[in-house]
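Student: I would love a firmer grasp of how sequence relates to backbone shape in proteins. Thank you; the sequence and its tokens follow:
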Amino acid sequence: MSQVLSELAIFSGRTHPQFTDGVCSSLDLKVGEVDVFEFSNENIFVQYQENIRSRDVFLIQPFCSPVNTSLVELLVMIDAARRASAGRITAVIPYFGYGRSDKKDQPRVPITARLVANLLETAGADRILTMNLHAGQIQGFFNIPVDELTALDPISSYLQQQDLAEYTVVATDAGDEKRARDMAVRLSSPLAIIDKRRIGNSGETEALNVLGEVSGRNVFILDDEIDTAGTMVEAVRILRQNDAKDVIVGGYHAILSGPAVPRLKDAAVKEILVTDSVPIPEEKRLENMRTISIAPLFAQAIERIHTGQSVGALFNGTDDPPN
């Protein structure tokens, strides 16, 4: 470990310790020692087993199953770090759960993403590091700095090593157009957009049409997350109706809840690309699923935050002097 990183301390919640191991391995650091457990009444207890006074503390925890437990656990870890006089506390949230509740689109509903932002600040977080938020406006819900990483580079780098002849990048809906367009630019591929409608609050969608040329072409469908995979399989269905050839699907966050795995299996796509922003149980891994690690990306961002360098320089090819 370099002297520059000597005051850096990285701790893991219980949700995804393998990811934290990957981050620390990239930085040649040891994962910090902390006890996290539940009492018999399900109350969460946290105690740091090393001195963190005045240190730069990073707490890693994605908000995934069990979502509410992982959220409260991170809040308790933040509070414990604040009361232990940590110098700065950065909440590292590879997957920001509740991100889809980012606006009041129906009567008498909450904006839960804003509520979660308030909770993190109240607990004592000084900074947030996350990846591929469902909506960019969520950054504005915070009054503390938010660094949003993207898995665009790792996934596009993997695809560029494959034979992508005659591929079109497809957005699952108009809201995902920018995300898919960025990927299409990286791959020098044309773009198409699925015209769909969402059916109530069930998570079900119906694909209606394809805007763009996919007939006789291979396609790569990109979404920010694969939850029940309803959107993905509907996109595959409409694309095959429009005479698309090989289909690769990709999602930055592999939530894979409910019927997702059997749906993806029945869709018989060529490949499924996901990241390790959330843990993927062995029973949810399909033979054609490829997991691309974004732990090295987070390690680079953590080092840059700790040393006062630009996080944005990871994506624009420039570097700024430390603040």
Q: What stands out?
A: DSSP finds nine helices and 14 strands in the chain. Residues 3-150+295-316 form a domain with the Rossmann fold fold (CATH 3.40.50.2020).
